[in-house]
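Handout, section 4.2: multi-component inputs.
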Amino acid sequence: MPIITVEHLSKHFKVYRRRTGFWGNLSSTVSRKHDIIKAVDDVNFSLERGELVGYIGANGAGKSTTIKMLTGILVPTSGHIDVMGLTPYRQRKENTRRIGVVFGQRTQLWWDLPVIDSFELLKHIYEIPQNLYKQNLEFFSEMLQLQPFLSTPVRRLSLGQRMRCDLTAALLHNPEILYLDEPTIGLDVVAKEQVRQFLRQVNAERQVTVILTTHDLNDVEKVCQRLIIIDNGKIIYDGGIDDLKKRYGKTRMLIVDLAQAYSDIQLEGVDLTRRDGNRIWLAFDRDTISASEVIAQLTARYEIQDLTISEPEIEEIVRRIYELGVH
Amino acid sequence: MKKYLTFTLKAFQRTLTYRFELWMELFINVLFMLVYVYLWKALYTGRTSVEGYDLNGILTYIVVSQTLLTFTFTLRISRIIEEKVRTGEVVTDLMKPIDFQLMTLATAAGTSSHTALFNMLPKFLLFYGAFGLSLPPSPLTVFLFFISVVLGYIILFSIEFIIGIFAFWLVEIRGLYAFVIWGLAMLFSGYFLPLEFYPDFLAKIAVVLPFRAIIYFPTAIYTGQLIGESLVTALLIQLTWVAVLVGIGRLAYRAAFRKLVIQGG
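Output:
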């Protein structure tokens, strides 16, 4: 049985139009016209217990709106949500007891107090039994190396340290689902890797279902098994990452360093997409022409110094899906 | 209940971080109180009693009410709520299995206990010793005085809570805050003068507003101005205001929550 089921979920916002100018302002106060923004528009998906899903989309695509409805702090305009058998916005408190939420942009820790004090506060808020609390605290402290700064006030932590503490804070009460809204935003490479590693481990060892929204597609590629892409409120892709690459990642890129800057480059079945001095970028579809055929053409006509073939980056694929839609 | 007590404890502990701010606050307060005390000493030259207050009585009134006033300018609950709404941090609170109003009260109580212990008590003792003020008439009055202080505090908190909740609709609540707290509350709470000194029409307005229950009632209980039946009536009025204002706060919060979950943050 799925842990989360979302059926025909929609959220429409009324946005009041403001007329400009003096008379415009005046008439706006009397009668206001509004537009309907479909932030989330007929969305369907379901998640099994223990899944690790990346939920991605451009700014304003409807990611956060969906997360807010799943956590129960936003009421849907229409549709149905079932989270662990609960309707989140009707049974908000019951739902909050069983989920953990991390917002990359803000913290739930008390700014002026040592980290450990915020954890103790959470222990009481969620009424976590003492032995479970101790056990979890030890587990996470070890895994995320929190020991050195547990008694440091939160305001003096680095962003990476703070994020590790926030992750712990969200998991102390053994939630069944963990929602993460851009957990790696602003982190350096090492800290990002640490967060990703942690999420994989928590998911594998504790069977926590994880939903992750992000702009950083490396997060998705390295952490998630499944990817849901939302654009303009609608889901445009839902499936495995390898599958996405197979379906949309047929294009290969060949980067060639030529011996000299040839003025005219003629090749069949290949797009010259970029040129920078002696270096050229060639895009080709691996179903119509193989890499060796392209290289054979090249070596026959030009003198080559070096070449590399690159796999399509997931970022590139997603960009193309945004631009062109799904085929 | 225990979880809210933890909020109180942690808030108390947090206040310890800002020692410098606390000393500055105390220093300025003491200067203000000195000025008031000397003003009243000067006004009483050649008089023995005004509206039932002799010099010692009025000085006691001024020092007690000035001490209680400290809650008014150190509470800051409206600003804290406004900040939480503006930054969106309020969502983090809503995602916890906790009552927002009770949590806010518990947190405020922690901060204010610290204020009471490290600002109000030393300040009061200093003036008590220096000017030979009087004590309440009986130990029972001392007890009832503290009850009245707590009720007054909850009334002040509730008013600030309601103002703070307006931040869900208004971009800016500073104007509303200034009008209610620096305007109405200052005028009608009786911190500046005992309400007996007020002209008739102002006294009549004060009676229908909740503000006198914040400072005037506890102070007048301390000085023995309110005794017997009038003391019991004062406590009952305070209890009524607590019920009414806490209730309005809950309704306002519920409306704000409804707005938030329908229209988004």
